[in-house]
Design a protein that fits this description.
Elements (H helix, E strand, L loop, with lengths): L1 H17 L3 H30 L6 H8 L4 H6 L13 E4 L5 H8 L4 E5 L2 H13 L6 E3 L12 E7 L8 H10 E15 L4 H12 L10 H7 L2 E9 L3 E10 L3 H8 L1
Parallel strand pairs: 1-2, 1-4, 2-3, 4-5
Antiparallel strand pairs: 5-7, 6-7
Helix pairs in contact: 1-2
Length: 259
């Protein structure tokens, strides 16, 4: 919305300075709004296809748009879980299940949710193929079908804005143990200089993959009972950005833990 306001202001100012008919400036504004609306509808449609009917292409597309860095970006979350092997982990929006395999290989009994039936089918096949037990549930992050205090950590890699919705944060806070962490990989930045990097960066920006998210994200996280920090992890050819939110134990929870 902020970008639209800037553009509208530019059009009005230009018309006033050049003596343009205000009706022409208004028509330009309406045209911009119409084209913008069509563009974002097309972007949303494309992502819906990628996550449903075209989900079988997701891993290939991810590797292409990250120049092969996607899996490394996901795995950057592992060392921030702050949970011992054997502790139960929950992944939100598991997608094709690639990171689920890494979590299981690290010794975590991992549960996961996703709203896409197709992604669930792909992830289930992958896990069985690797010899891991699928613990997949088709559910929304805003209504988690798990008991309170069930998980040592909750993780999500490249989620959409649902991850910072108050309802999601409240549910994550509920299912986490005292001191448990929510670890989110929310962006990966290519640091090499090349035509491919420049082209991909342009594509990221025009599809809003560089943000912005809600302006009050930090306030939402704090209000949900977390202390949070943003972490930048440098890799060989890129940088991955995460936020780590730790559940602040209530007095009653702290007394139970200390007992």
């Amino acid at each position: 919305m902020e970008n639209k306001d800037i553009h509208y202001g530019d059009l009005r100012g230009h018309g006033e300075e050049q003596g343009t008919d205000p009706r022409l400036a208004c028509n330009r504004c309406a045209l911009y709004e119409h084209v913008s609306s069509l563009w974002w509808a097309l972007v949303r449609f494309g992502f819906r296809l990628l996550y449903n009917e075209l989900a079988y292409t997701y891993d290939t597309v991810s590797r292409i748009v990250s120049l092969g860095q996607w899996h490394d970006w996901q795995c950057a979350a592992l060392k921030h879980l702050n949970a011992p092997p054997g502790a139960p982990i929950l992944e939100l929006a598991h997608g094709t299940g690639q990171f689920l395999i890494d979590l299981c290989a690290a010794g975590y009994p991992t549960y996961s949710i996703d709203v896409s039936r197709t992604m669930g089918q792909i992830a289930r096949r992958k896990l069985i193929g690797w010899g891991y037990r699928p613990r997949l549930v088709r559910a929304r992050a805003q209504a988690l079908p798990f008991p309170a205090g069930r998980f040592a950590a909750v993780v999500s890699t490249f989620p959409t804005e649902f991850i910072v919705e108050p309802a999601t944060l409240a549910e994550v806070q509920r299912v986490l143990r005292p001191g448990g962490r929510l670890v989110v990989v929310f962006n990966g930045l290519l640091t090499t200089s090349s035509a491919a990097t420049a082209a991909l960066e342009f594509a990221y920006r025009i599809t809003s993959q560089r943000g912005p998210w809600a302006m009050d994200v930090e306030q939402r996280i704090a209000a949900a009972g977390f202390s949070a920090q943003v972490i930048s992890e440098p890799l060989e050819r890129s940088t991955v950005l995460l936020f780590v939110a730790e559940k602040v134990a209530t007095r009653s929870e702290a007394s139970v833990v200390g007992a």
